[in-house]
């Protein structure tokens, strides 16, 4: 009915009543924010185990409520800012990081359109026909969060950190974008839901293995995580772009970083690991789909943590030459070969 | 004869530099090896000892807090107040004031006894010289190392405290462990 009223909105998949959209927004927001402490805890625990330690285990059973204690501590801290900082931008920058990260969560598909008490509801925030571009554009805006934060702090270490972040994000965004062109061409659509549906027969990790590897390496750089965490190289830069931040604002940066890990894992799941599809023709009831997606996401999150515990940080010139001289040519070649295969 | 710096140059033999393909292969292989190493640590489990709950057992000759001893049969103190421990102490943390035993008031087996025997634990360096110096084995080093307190005055251990049966708070390592 709504679709008939507004054909333009229907074309971009905007055919659900407004109240469903609101409920979905709240649910996605809640799930997204609740995943962060889980990932935070998982990281500290798994890294601990990988280093022969226990990780935090004092607050609550098995240290389970440690993240809550951390957040409580951070939010109780005094808000301060350096005299050299630029007031408004200094305050806005962490929020910008956070907002862009949460906004990207909207297009992650957790399942197909299902029937909930007679109402068809898509298990995703919104199925935009330019899905993957949406994610990338918000990724591009997210970089302003780091850049403004580092610059508005009025501190040289923050500024150095944000300059590194800018250079790194721009160079790796190219490779990351190129890596998924293969997937887009094979699926013939930009909508993430359709891409998942196209993977029902075979996950794109099989034909697009090169694209997958390039995507993963670039994702490590995009999320500023080890071994590409040069933006916050504590040995060289004190703390990177967030040096001058404390309390709740620091918490926002911290959250945005982990939310980015979650989003990249979700994107990798959607693009390469078949979203809610299961292999070998297993077809569970529809309510299992979101859990399948979450389980696949946690495989990637574990991989992120695993890599962080394993690899040392790259030197800056190594980072740049890896991005421009190795990943970009490989991704371009992958695109070319895929194009030839798809056309012929 | 004046030597030129060139004489000291030593040719270093290096292996052939890896080409791009073998270099990439090596980098990838080493990464996988690193991932294997870190994952093996998960399988192995943590090596942390959760201190207040778990304690590392001490060796029998561990030098912890001192103990003063009595004769088991008569119950008399072994210490005769000779002050040799105080003399041997490099940190100067032992104070002994001796007094004469009388037939009515017999404290130790010898002629004299220690009326005051104090060890200042905040100065003690746990070298064990007092134990070595003692001719009657009256003082020995125990196994207790949990000695922290809230003020310095409480760290001066009196004779009663040292004579008292100490709380065995630390597990003892058994023979050959």
Structural features:
heterodimer; A: 344 residues; mainly alpha; two-stranded antiparallel sheet; 13 helices; 2 strands; 65% helix; disordered N terminus; B: 177 residues; alpha+beta; 3-stranded antiparallel β-sheet; 4 helices; 23% helix; elongated
Task: Please tell me about this protein's structure.
The complex is a heterodimer of chains A (344) and B (177). By secondary structure, chain A is mostly helical. Helices cover 65% and strands 2% of the residues of chain A. Chain A has 13 helices and 2 strands. Chain A has a two-stranded antiparallel sheet. In chain A, a hairpin with a 2-residue loop joins strand 1 and strand 2. In chain A, helix 5 packs antiparallel against helix 6, helix 6 runs antiparallel to helix 7 and helix 11 crosses helix 12. Chain B has 4 helices and 5 strands; from the N terminus they run αβαββαββα. The chains are: A mainly alpha (344), B alpha+beta (177). At the A-B interface, helix 3 and helix 12 of A face helix 1 of B.
Could you outline the blueprint of secondary structure elements for this entry?
The complex is a heterodimer of chains A (344) and B (177).
Chain A: H1 2-5, H2 7-11, H3 18-50, H4 66-75, H5 87-104, E1 113-116, E2 119-122, H6 131-152, H7 156-187, H8 192-198, H9 209-222, H10 234-237, H11 247-272, H12 289-310, H13 316-343
Antiparallel strand pairs in A: 1-2
Helix pairs in contact in A: 3-11, 3-12, 4-11, 5-6, 5-11, 6-7, 7-9, 7-13, 9-11, 9-13, 11-12
Chain B: H1 20-44, E1 66-68, H2 84-88, E2 94-100, E3 112-120, H3 129-133, E4 139-141, E5 156-157, H4 159-163
Judging from the principal axes of the Cα atoms, what is the shape of chain A? globular
Strand pairing plus helix content of chain A: what structural class? mainly alpha
Q: Name the beta content range of chain B.
A: 5-15%
- H and E string of chain B: HEHEEHEEH
Principal-axis shape of chain B: elongated
Question: What is the C-alpha radius of gyration of chain A, as a whole number of Å?
Answer: 21 Å
Secondary structure class of chain B reads alpha+beta
List how many beta strands of chain A DSSP finds. 2
Largest contact between chains: A-B, 14 and 15 residues
Q: Identify the strand order in the major beta sheet of chain B.
A: 2-3-5
Assign a percent range to the helix content of chain A. 55-70%
Oligomer: heterodimer
What does the main sheet of chain B amount to? 3 strands, antiparallel
Query: For the terminal residues of chain A, how far apart are their CA atoms?
Result: 41 Å
Order of helices and strands of chain A: HHHHHEEHHHHHHHH
Total strands of chain B: 5
């Amino acid at each position: 009915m709504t679709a008939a009223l507004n054909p333009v909105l229907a074309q971009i998949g905007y055919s659900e009543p407004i109240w469903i959209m609101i409920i979905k927004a709240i649910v996605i927001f809640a799930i997204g924010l609740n995943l962060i402490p889980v990932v935070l805890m998982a990281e500290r625990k798994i890294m601990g185990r990988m280093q022969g330690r226990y990780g935090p285990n004092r607050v609550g059973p098995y240290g389970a409520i440690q993240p809550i204690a951390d957040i409580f501590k951070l939010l109780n801290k005094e808000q301060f800012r350096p005299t050299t900082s630029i007031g408004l931008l200094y305050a806005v920058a962490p929020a910008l990081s956070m907002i862009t990260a949460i906004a990207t969560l909207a297009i992650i598909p957790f399942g197909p359109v299902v029937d909930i008490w007679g109402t068809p509801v898509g298990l995703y925030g919104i199925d935009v026909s330019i899905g993957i571009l949406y994610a990338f554009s918000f990724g591009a805006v997210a970089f302003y969060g780091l850049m403004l934060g580092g610059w508005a702090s009025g501190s040289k270490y923050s500024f150095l950190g944000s300059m590194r972040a800018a250079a790194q994000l721009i160079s790796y965004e190219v490779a990351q974008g190129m890596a998924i062109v293969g997937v887009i061409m094979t699926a013939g659509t930009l909508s993430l839901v359709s891409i998942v549906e196209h993977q029902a027969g075979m996950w794109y990790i099989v034909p697009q293995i090169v694209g997958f590897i390039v995507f993963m390496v670039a994702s490590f750089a995009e999320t500023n995580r080890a071994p590409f965490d040069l933006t916050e190289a504590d040995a060289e830069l004190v703390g990177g772009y967030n040096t001058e931040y404390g309390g709740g604002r620091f918490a926002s940066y911290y959250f945005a970083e982990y939310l980015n890990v979650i989003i990249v894992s979700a994107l990798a799941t959607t693009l390469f690991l078949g979203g809610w599809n299961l292999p070998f023709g297993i077809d569970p009831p529809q309510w299992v789909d979101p859990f399948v997606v979450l389980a696949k996401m946690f495989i990637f999150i574990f991989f992120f943590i695993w890599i962080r515990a394993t690899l040392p940080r790259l030197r800056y010139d190594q980072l740049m030459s890896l991005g421009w001289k190795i990943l970009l040519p490989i991704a371009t070649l992958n695109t070319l070969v895929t194009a030839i295969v798809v056309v012929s | 004869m004046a030597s030129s710096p060139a004489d000291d140059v030593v040719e270093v033999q290096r292996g052939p530099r890896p080409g791009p393909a073998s270099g990439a292969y090596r980098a990838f292989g080493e990464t996988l090896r690193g991932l294997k190493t870190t994952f093996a640590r998960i399988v192995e489990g943590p090596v942390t000892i959760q201190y207040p709950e778990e304690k590392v057992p001490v060796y029998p000759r561990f030098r912890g807090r001192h103990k003063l001893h009595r004769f088991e049969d008569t119950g008399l103190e072994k210490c005769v107040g000779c002050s040799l421990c105080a003399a041997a102490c490099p940190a100067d943390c032992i104070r002994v004031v001796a007094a004469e035993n009388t037939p009515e008031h017999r404290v130790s087996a010898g002629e004299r006894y220690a009326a005051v025997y104090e060890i200042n634990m905040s100065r003690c360096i746990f070298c064990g010289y007092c134990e070595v110096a003692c001719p009657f084995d009256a003082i020995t080093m125990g196994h207790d190392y949990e000695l922290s307190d809230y003020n310095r005055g409480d760290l001066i251990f009196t004779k009663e405290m040292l004579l008292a049966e100490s709380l065995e708070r630390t597990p003892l390592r058994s023979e050959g462990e």
